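Incident log, structure service

09:12 report received: a user says their structure output differs between two submissions of the same chain.
09:20 pulled the input from the user's history:
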Amino acid sequence: MLPNFLCVGAQKSGTTTLYEILKQHPDIFLPQKIKETKFFVFEEKFSKGKAWYEKEFFSEW
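09:34 re-ran on a clean worker, output below:
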């Protein structure tokens, strides 16, 4: 299942705190092995497609 929200933020803007708070909620799944997927940042990841993204970061769900 692909995520239904994205958290986008600049460095030092509180995204780590937000991540830590959200991952404590039982109805919210966040990848445990990596906080920032950088899927949309690097072409080598983005070019692998949505199926790779889903498997790589959300297969635990």
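09:41 both user submissions now match this output. Likely a transient worker issue. Closing.
09:42 reviewer note: The mean pLDDT is 89. The first helix runs from residue 15 to 22.
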